[in-house]
Amino acid sequence: MSEPLIEVTDLRYVYHSDTPQAVVALDGLSFSVEPGEYLGIVGGNGSGKSTLAKHLNALLLPASGTVRVGGLDTRDRAAIWEIRRRVGMIFQNPDNQLVATVVEEDVAFGPENLGLPPAMIRERVGEALAAVGMTEFRRRAPHLLSGGQKQRVAIAGILAMRPACLVLDEATTMLDPAGRAEVLETLAVLNRRDGVTIMLISHAMEDLADAGRIIAMDRGRIVLDGPAARVMARADEIPGGRLGAPQMAKLARWLREDGLRLPEGAHTVEALADAVAAAAGLGTQGDV
Question: In which domain, by residue range, is 273 found?
Answer without folding.
Answer: 246-288
